[in-house]
Predict the structure.
Amino acid sequence: MTGVLDVLGGVCVIAGALLCLAAAIGLVRLPDVLTRMHAATKPQTLGLLLVLLGIGLTLRDLRATGLLVLIAVLQLFTAPVAAHLVGRTAYRTAQLRTDLLDRDELADDLRTAGFRLSSDAEEPNGEPEQEPREDDGAGQDRS
Amino acid sequence: MSAARLRARRPQPSLVIVCALTWVLLWGSLSVANLIVGALLGVVIGLVFPMPVIDTPGRLRPLGVAAAAGRLLVDLVRSSGAVLVTVLRFGRTPRNAVVRVQLRSRSDLYLAQTAELVTLVPGSLVIEARRSSSTLYLHVMDVRSDADLERTRADVLAAEERVIRAFGSAAEVAALREGRPLPLPPDVPADVPAAVPAAVRGDEPAGEAR
């Protein structure tokens, strides 16, 4: 019985590590910040959960399991928030490949609301537009 | 609604309990001393970083929470697979899109939880949330057709429904079941209709964005 659990735990740890490796490959290969954040949230989170599960199956210790559950819960809560903040910042500072976007309804709404986006600006002499996207209104709290 | 009213003046009991539990888990032993120190930490954190009180109209529904958690695990596996396929496929750069999804509810709690769930489900990443109208803007990876975008919208609304089934009030769950518009809290501004489908919401009021 313990042998079976050890093998299962080992398989989980290896599978989780492979998922984290794939997430790392995604960080390198994907074209811009927003697509990279996809790789940084989903396979990475699942990979960590699998590693934690594997450790729990191998250790079979109640105290360690409590700590592992805590790590898993914190990861599930914080990974989307971190991804949201990175993605939001990337969008606002125009750090994204707009040529890969088939549709951008946030930009549409911002233009309707009267904002000028840096992606609209002409760049006649190759001088990059320094002005960040002025979309401060979209995330404001109601006050 | 003033900021002073939103902030808790005294430590919130839930925060104290969560901190005590976290402290016990970190130390790995359930003792009176650990519980007391953890609770004290919760009080201090509540005083130093006062947070708005989470106003929830509903209650915790264990069955709904279990269903949402189970579905989250399934979604996590599916979305990891989808991202892996995109990552490991050579020779094609994924096309993306940013879509707007108008939620049916109007609650900070539901908005935050739906955003968390949506980021972990296949293909989507929340890049902007508009609190005043409960609108999420998602970055969708590897879009091939408009049907993909419609599926993403449906996924988000399904995630919202799971959140409400896990934490909502009886009236909200009943409204969901019968397909009626959700009952809204009284302080919702009347100029943003809740039940307007996302497709016709092209006219954001210009005043809102200052």
Q: What stands out?
A: The first strand of chain B starts at residue 96 and ends at 102. The first helix of chain B runs from residue 3 to 6.
